[in-house]
Structure formats: C-alpha cells, structure tokens
Specification:
Distance between the termini: 103 Å
Region (Disordered): 1-42, 143-162
CATH topology of the largest domain: Immunoglobulin-like
Subcellular location: Cytoplasmic granule
Biased composition (Basic and acidic residues): 24-34
Strand content: 15-25%
Helix content: 10-25%
Strand order of the largest sheet: 1-2-3-8-7
GO biological process, one term: response to stress
Number of strands: 8
Radius of gyration: 33 Å
CATH architecture of the largest domain: Sandwich
Domain CS: 47-136
Structural class: alpha+beta
Shape: elongated
CATH class of the largest domain: Mainly Beta
Oligomer: single chain
Largest sheet: 5 strands, antiparallel
Amino acid sequence: MAIISEMQDETRQEESVPPMDPMEVEKPKKESLKPTEPIVPNKGNGLDFEKYSWTQNLQEVTVTIPVPSGTKSRSVTCEIKKNRLRVSLKGQDPIIDGEFFNAVKPDDCFWNIEDQKVVSVLLTKQDQMQWWKCCVKGEPEIDTQKVEPESSKLSDLDPETRSSVEKMMFDQRQKQMGLPTSDEIEKEDMMKKFMSQHPEMNFSNAKFN
C-alpha cells in the first residue's frame, strides 16, 4: 500500500507541474530599403540595360535597341511624344514604355532600323543645356557629375551656346574639387576691385555673402 501511495504522490506532482510556454521565435526584421545611388555613366554618358541602351550629348539622346536579325520596319511600333516613348515589336510586350526624364521635340525626333537588327531612336532635347539622369523615369539614374562632354564637338556650337557649355563644364569641375564657381569668382573679383577703389573704408569686420 505504501508503494501505491508513493506512486500516487508522484503522479500528483507531475500533474501539478505547469506546462512550459512555447519558445517565441523572433521574426526577422525586414531590411529597410536603401535609396539607389547614382551610377557612373557609360562612355556615351548614358546607361546600358539588357534590352536597350542609351547615350546622350547636350542636344540629343540616342536609344539603341537590339532586335532579332531580319526585323523589318513594319514589325516595329515606335511612338515618340513630347514626354513619352513607346517601342515594341509586333505581337510582343513593349520594350520601352515610359515617361522621358525631360521633354523632347517630337518633330525633330526619328527612328530607323540599322542592318535589320538594331532599332535606333534619335531624340532631340527641348532643353539643350541639361544632362539627363535617365532616359525613362523609373530606371536607374546616372551621376551627372561624372558626365564627360565631347570637347571636340564644342566647335560645332554657336558662340553663345559654346560659352554657356564651357562655363557649365568649368563650374562642374570646380564643384568636384571644392573650389568656387565662375559666378563666385566674379563676385570676389568685383569686391576686391571695389575695396581697392575705396581704401578709406574699413572692411575688416564686413561679412560678404
């Protein structure tokens, strides 16, 4: 009887042990999305993608799209609007369909097929004093500070445009080196000239913006 009593006591102790809480597994935290950093442009100051590539100068953007060899122009649909480009092959999803980084001049844009294997689209920029960060909005952007203009083509520009381009290129290099831009240099020279013309004035405590 004593043995049975001891077994009953052990059974009661086992029943009185509270159940263990299941271990809580910490859920992995979602990584915060990091903003996409600008990309160094290709040799044509644009970018290369799997389905197409684009290059640019200050006046134009050229989009190059490889297509199956033997493709005829009637198999290509190319719609160029002021703010949008859509290129597709007959019976297929669009290769490009999106909004331009900046507006173009549709009447001065055209496309053709080279050797029946490449569709080339020439886009004339409306603002011919700005580098595009991308061809179509939503795609990766280039670092326009790394753009390398073709100096050899500066001679083709009219004097006013050439002067503006050279000024922009100079200011871009100065900013990269942490040096004053042409406007800042001009203001500084004007102030030095004014100070030399008025030696009687005390500029020691003056603050210039």
